[in-house]
Protein 1
Amino acid sequence: MDPVSHALVGAAVGSLAPGPAAFWAAVAGSVVPDADIVVRWVAGEAAYLDHHRGATHSPLGAAVLGSAVAAAAQALWPGSGFGRVLFWAVLGFYSHVLLDLTNAYGTQALWPWSRRRYAWDWTSVIDGPVLALGALHLAMRTVAPARGALWGGLTLAALAVYLGLRAAAHGKAVAAVRRHAPAARRVSVVPAFLRLDRWRYVAEDDRGYLTGWVLGPGRKVGEPQVLVRREDAVVGASLAAPAVQVLRRFSRHPHAEWRRDGDGYLVRWWDVRWGAGPIPPFAAEVVLDPALKLVDDRLIAGPGRLRDGVRFVYEEWGRPV
């Protein structure tokens, strides 16, 4: 989830803590798991996609990063007690991990024992109600700071109710898709970026993927687009590209399409969870020569052109089911 949401929820956790050291330890603990952003700066987008929400979101990360936060808090507030601030730093840390688990990106919460990306698919990476609840808590804490623990507790309770409602809505959407596509061996349903009443579904069968929308309280399942799995020599040659290997490790439903590009081939891979075409947030692009040898590859993060961004918003918000 976005860093602002993490910090706001961390502040709600910290409002239950005694004293400023524990409060700020919880806030810092709630944002420090995303310290792995340095991987993007040092090693590039592909390495970041491969390692984000890995070690820094694991129990090992909780121990190392929580201890660092606690040490910093103890230095700023001498006598605050290392064990006490460590406790609140770790609570903030796990508020971050919990929020990340609720969306579709995937979190390696059991690293290094498992590289599996756990994702519950309930919320968006930027989720309006989570932001609103966190902002409301901050406003109430500012107006009546003496009741900070009350506001923090109410905010966390409201957040738990909201996440429970999203979990229930997700379960109903999954059930609707399974009724609509009974032959599917695997189904994913992820929330639209901008709408609470809209879910994108992917139903995977032996031929490829069916993808479309589930809309409204009635869980209306729209007619799908069909993506036929391609397993030809061009797609096979692209599998050697490092960017494709990273994307496939990240993806739940990887899919490839290709076209002729001069004398060679241009292959694009993406995760069908994000749409029927290689639009945000990630795609891998591979250039092959006429002999199917790798010429170039790259990972594309976000819309490369304005029209891609406009298309993404249209897909998420306005496209009829």
Protein 2
Amino acid sequence: MRTYEAACVFKAEEEKYQASREEVLKVLKELGAESIKEHDMAVRTLAYQIEGELQAHYLVFEFKMDPASAHQIEDRVKYFDDLLRILVTRQDD
């Protein structure tokens, strides 16, 4: 198991944020993520528009996962409508 971090940028509306957050969390659990921690970074103004949005809600998930499953995260969530961006990185152990 390795430690990973998934930085997510969601649409700023609270309803859309909560629904998408739950969807991403569900995918992480389905792929076998353990020790999931969430770091809410609140709503921020974007430097440029993403899909017509000027503000977005930032959230970082920190978790442990098998490397074979980690590469599947982006493939599983890339079509979520209210998730604007996601970046999954491996952390130093």
